[in-house]
Design brief:
The protein is α/β, with parallel strands linked by helices and 253 residues long. It folds into two domains: 138 residues, Rossmann fold; 102 residues, 2-Layer Sandwich (Dihydrodipicolinate Reductase, domain 2), CATH 3.30.360. It is built from seven helices and twelve strands. A seven-stranded parallel sheet has the order 3-2-1-4-5-6-12, sandwiched between helices. The protein has a five-stranded mixed sheet with strand order 8-9-7-10-11, with helices on one face. α4 packs parallel to α5. The longest helix is centred in the middle third of the chain and has 16 residues. It starts with a strand and ends in a 5-residue tail after the last helix.
C-alpha cells in the first residue's frame, strides 16, 4: 500500500484525487493538507505542511504555483518523492524543480493525461513530415482556470519546438504584419465548465492536419497522478515525466 499526502486537498483537483485514492486498493490517503481544512475530513487533515505528523510515502500536489517553492523545500527536507501537477510555474521555479530532482525523485508534468502525452509524441513525428506547415494551438478551459495559456498548450508547443527555433505568439490583436513561418500561435478560450480541450493544427497549402484531445472528466488527471506516484516509489532521485510512464506502460485500473 502506498501512503499519499495530498497538497491542495480542498481544491477541485484535490477533492478528485482524494476520492480516487480512497476508492483504490493500492493506495492509502494518509494526509490532506490545505488552508481550508474544516476538521471533519476522512483522512488526517492539516492546515499547513509543518503540522503534518503522520507517515506518508509520496506527496501529490494539485495546489497553486505560489505554494510551490515551500512545497519543494518541504519534500527535500523530508526526503519524499513529489508528483508536481501544478501549472503556471515561473522559469525560476522550473529551475528549482530541476535542482530538487538531484536530491529527491520528482514527477513533473503539465498534464497527467496519457492521451495528451500520446498526442505530444505524435505531433513530434508529424512535424518531421509537415515542417513547412503553419502551426497553431487552441486550448479551451473552464472559466475558473487562472493561468493562460495552459501548461498543456506549452507542453504541446515545446514538443514541436525541440530546437527552440519557433517563437510563441499569444493571440494576434494589434499585429500589422503577416504571419512568420517560424511562429506557433497559441490561443486561449475560457468559459463554462470545459474540463480541457487542446487542438494542434498543421495548416499547409490546400490541406490541414489537426490533432485534438478532449478531457471529459478531471478523473483522467487523478489517475495519471496515481500512476506517477506508483512509478516514483522505487526511485531515489531524478526528474521524470509522462514519457517515462508511457515507455514503461505502467497503468492502474
Amino acid at each position: 500500500m502506498i501512503r499519499i499526502l495530498v497538497y491542495g486537498a480542498k481544491g477541485t483537483m484535490g477533492k478528485i484525487i482524494t476520492n480516487e485514492i480512497e476508492s483504490h486498493p493500492d493506495f492509502i490517503l494518509s494526509a490532506c493538507v490545505s488552508k481550508h481544512i474544516d476538521g471533519d475530513e476522512s483522512c488526517s487533515a492539516f492546515a499547513d505542511l509543518d503540522s503534518v505528523n503522520v507517515e506518508y510515502d509520496v506527496v501529490i500536489d494539485f495546489s497553486h504555483f505560489s505554494l510551490t517553492d515551500d512545497l519543494i523545500d518541504f519534500c527535500i527536507k523530508k526526503n519524499k518523492p513529489l508528483v508536481l501537477a501544478t501549472t503556471g510555474l515561473s522559469e525560476e521555479q522550473e529551475q528549482k524543480v530541476l535542482k530538487a530532482s538531484d536530491t529527491i525523485p520528482v514527477f513533473r508534468s503539465k498534464n497527467l493525461s496519457i492521451g495528451i502525452n500520446l498526442i505530444a509524441h505524435l505531433i513530434q513525428e508529424a512535424h518531421e513530415l509537415l515542417n513547412d506547415f503553419d502551426i497553431e494551438i487552441i486550448e479551451k478551459h473552464h472559466n475558473k482556470k487562472v493561468d493562460a495559456p495552459s501548461g498543456t498548450a506549452f507542453l504541446l508547443a515545446d514538443a514541436i519546438n525541440q530546437k527552440n527555433d519557433y517563437t510563441y505568439i499569444h493571440g494576434r490583436f494589434g499585429k500589422t504584419s503577416k504571419r512568420n513561418a517560424k511562429e506557433i500561435g497559441i490561443h486561449s478560450v475560457r468559459g463554462g465548465t470545459i474540463v480541457g480541450e487542446h487542438s494542434v493544427i498543421f495548416a499547409g497549402t490546400d490541406e490541414i492536419v489537426e490533432f485534438k484531445h478532449e478531457a471529459h472528466s478531471k478523473k483522467v488527471f487523478a489517475k495519471g497522478a496515481l500512476n506517477a506516484a506508483k512509478f516514483l516509489i522505487s526511485k531515489k532521485n531524478g526528474l521524470f515525466n509522462m514519457n517515462d510512464l508511457i515507455t514503461r506502460r505502467l497503468t492502474i485500473d
